[in-house]
Amino acid sequence: MSDTQVAFSDLDLPSSVLKSITELGYETPSPIQAACIPLLLNGDDVLGMAQTGTGKTAAFALPLLSRIDLKLNKPQVLVLAPTRELAVQVAEAFQAYARHIPGFHVLPIYGGQSYTLQLKQLRRGPHVVVGTPGRVMDHLDRGTLILDELKAMVLDEADEMLRMGFIDDVETIMAKTPAARQTALFSATMPEQIRRITKRYMRDPKEIKIASKTTTMENIDQRCWIVSGVNKLDALVRILETEDCGGIIIFARTKTATTEIAEKLEARGYAAAPLNGDMNQQLRERTVQRLKDAKLDILVATDVAARGLDVERVGMVINYDIPYDTEAYVHRIGRTGRAGRDGKAILFVAPRERRLLKQIEQATRQPIKQMDLPSRDMVQNKRLESFREQVTSIFNDEDMSTYRELVDQLASDTELETLDLASALLYMAQKDKPLILPPEPEPRPRRERDNDRDSRDGERGAKRERINYADLDVYRLEVGRNDGVQVKNIVGAIANEADINSRHIGDIRLFDDHSTVQLPKGMPPEVLQQLKGVFICRKKIDISLMEGEIARPAPRKPRGDFKGKGRNDRGGNDRGAPRKPRPRRDA
């Protein structure tokens, strides 16, 4: 591939798409975007080998979006993703790129979401469907997802789907799609099972290999806050109150958000202003100059508006909205730490955006430390310290004689002691920004930590918390070894469909015609009903509670060879037969 730099405008994308990506701050296509977009626009099948974080979502979404027939309200593009988080991320990217395409509709479908809601949205006729293999299979079997008009199919992170045990479902889905459809497959590695798919279901695919581009930002202290429990704006204000860093740039995703955030910060007493594409060049330059002159402390900007911005006093960048790709993140935090100076960067991450966080860590070759929000005491102490400095500065720099006389006069008129009068004046002075804050509410259980299943679910060798078996029930699944099931298939299906973190799934035992799994007590009936209809290895699991069974840890297996028909899986062979040591479970 040529090293000549190309622009998005050189890639024959429609003006509506170009307008959207310009507003999102995309400057030039990444290598995989420059290579894949022309091929996919031309109708070719593409096999892309690229690491996470190289911009591959835009590499397939932009060209396929450009070929949508808006008059046809049927699925025309199907994207398969290994996890619900990635499915939501890809769907949001499609929506962002289509912001200037009226009538466009994209639908993410995944386990754990209401069937009623999904069926209602499917009846609306989405143009693009992004889903996890299990839920897509389920809708195909029910006849609620019709792919007769499918023009293109994308397999995103195919190696991850293989590792999570979904590859058989992927092949089944591909066999049910029109033979003439276009196919794009993206994978960081190319195991034999995936290579087999490319040979069986793709037509003369053009192969693209992209090395992962990494950037070091060693002079920038990068931290992230996982959004939970506190409103983002309140969290932002807490950070602003306790960080000392001169000028600050806050990045938001949309022009509207920059204006809203800046106005709310101004209402709280901050010298803040928006910087976005709706501002003319003269106003933009004047706003930047105010920041340079310290007449303004905070700019709330979009990626486009902050292009090339270099202000020496900017000591911190806050990503109020996480960017969709790693290059945008690198450009954003590059506004601080200029010319070798130290800088700070804080990133707000919603639980379902953890995958984007991992991509950013890869791109910057730095772990991003999770931070706790400043506490009430920290904010209060900072306010008191600032107030003390302000009082001392006024006393040292201003002539107080007239005000002393005024205090004496007020004390005489009100018959108040001087200390009482000073207390009343202090109360009046701090009323808009209280020096004494109300106590923080008692912390609630952080259910988000239990329910948020990050992209490592199903990853081999992940560490697990100690399970209290008294808190588990035993369930029977009507799928077993004879159906080809493996432990990782069960983990992946339950984690995706029931939104249960794999560390809360107990022992799984495989038998010839069924399996058992230990799940938390008190499973909601609607979740169990949903799980009943789930398919594993093309067979409905029809889950049911095993009355009277008590959850216990799996017995230690003595070393030795198998004597029965069982395989080296959890709970393997006939009772009493010598067993091999149990391998680590996919979790």
UniProtKB/TrEMBL annotation:
Boundaries of every DEAD-box RNA helicase Q domain copy: 6-34
Transmembrane segments: none
GO molecular function term, any single one: RNA helicase activity
Ranges for region Disordered: 432-464, 549-587
Gene that encodes the chain: deaD
Protein name per its UniProtKB record: ATP-dependent RNA helicase DeaD
InterPro entries cross-referenced by the UniProt entry: CsdA_RRM, DbpA/CsdA_RNA-bd_dom, DEAD/DEAH_box_helicase_dom, DEAD/DEAH_RhlB, DEAD_box_RNA_helicases, DeaD_dimer, DEAD_helicase_DeaD, Helicase_ATP-bd
Chain ranges of the Helicase C-terminal domain: 232-379
One Pfam family matching this protein: DEAD
